[in-house]
Design goal:
By secondary structure, the protein is of the alpha+beta class. It has three domains: 109 residues; 145 residues, no CATH class; 146 residues, Flagellar hook protein FlgE (Tick-borne Encephalitis virus Glycoprotein, domain 1, Sandwich). Helices cover 15% and strands 37% of the residues. It is built from two helices and 30 strands. The strands form nine sheets. Strands 5, 6, 9, 10, 22, 23, 24, 25 and 28 form a nine-stranded antiparallel β-sheet that branches. A five-stranded antiparallel β-sheet has the order 12-13-14-15-16, with no helix packed on it. Strands 11, 19, 20 and 21 form a four-stranded mixed β-sheet that branches. Helix 1 packs antiparallel against helix 2. The chain is elongated and about 130 Å long.
Length: 427
Amino acid sequence: MSILKAMYSGVSGLNAETGALGVVGDNVANTNTIGFKQSRAIFANVLGAAIGSNEPGSGVNMVRTQQIFAQGGLVNTGQSTDVALSGDGFFVVKGSVDGVQNSFYTRAGQFTLRNDGTLINADGLSVQGYQADLKGQLQTTTGDIKLSTAPIPPKATSSMKITANLDASATEPAAAWDPNNPSATSNLATSLTVYDSVGNAHVADVYFRKTASGDWDYHVLAKGNELAGGGTGNVEIAGGNFQFTSDGALQTITQSTPGNVSFAGATPNQAIALDFGKSIGAGGTGLEGITQYASTSSVSSQKQDGYASGALSGVKIDSDGTVNGVYTNGQTIAAGKLAVAKFQSNDGLGRAGHNLWVATRDSGEAAMGDAGSGGRASLVSGSLEQSNVDVTQQFVELISHQRAFQANSKTITTADQMLQELMSIKQ
């Protein structure tokens, strides 16, 4: 009877709209869930007879929910361990979720460091990537990314590089060079902190003294009481001479005092190479380091390559996915690189809760690779991907499903009234 069919169709509509309301409710509830992807209800009509007949249908079914993997907005957090995906792909994490040990996939890049140095997500699952060896070479297979929590050893300074201009119009100091009165017997001074083999810091003072037109001496001093055997005052540990061309380029460098130093308690005869740029006489331009122009004497840059021992103080993720350990001595060491997984069908991924998905037969196997390669998403460090739920759209959907629910309820009550009329005719 068509009246009963109408009633059953109304019931199917109530069931379908109830399911759809659940989908909308889940979307709205996860408006602020990082990396969340909204879903939508997929409806299909139900036939009441054989395929091809002209009989009225028997209602509707909510066939399934479909996830919408549209890009969510990116928000800058300033947190060095936060990273967002921009494009197609997923971070890979591994561990146990609700008793199931597996590899999982996520868009939520809220990472942190476990006390053993392993990079983990908010649920404590190990983030997967390509671990770097001691030489910085990346492995070809994926695994946990782990930073060494042991202190890194010190590195003795082996080179000092200074870029400066020496004023061509400067006047030669009247007094002879005096290492114990260097400021009064030189034209320009600078200082660098250098390190010995056990990581102790020492100040190396560098003085530049004009001796004639186009002719300068340099002197590198250390404190005598910091050297092996002790001593007082300043001790010259390196020195030499610059010759400049008439247009201010460095013609030649002559080193008169070798740059070997023996600090107390450290490896003796520590060699420190001095880099003032490549002179014309050595095949360079003479303009890369020390120059002599008629402008104020000044140092524009200086650096040295040593450092003290350091402890792990944090982690920083670069935009190419490189995971770096940050140490208290200012050094940054690459520990590995994040892997990004790509699937043939994101829609086929299975939801696992906790902002996670699992691979299924429908999704295909994960294809691992570097961010930005093979169509994979690029990374935005210091940011997170927000939920892609549009609350305004969800409110519209909510009203639409509510009205449809009311309409289906009306179908049932109307069919019931008609049945009551039929019953009364019989009476």
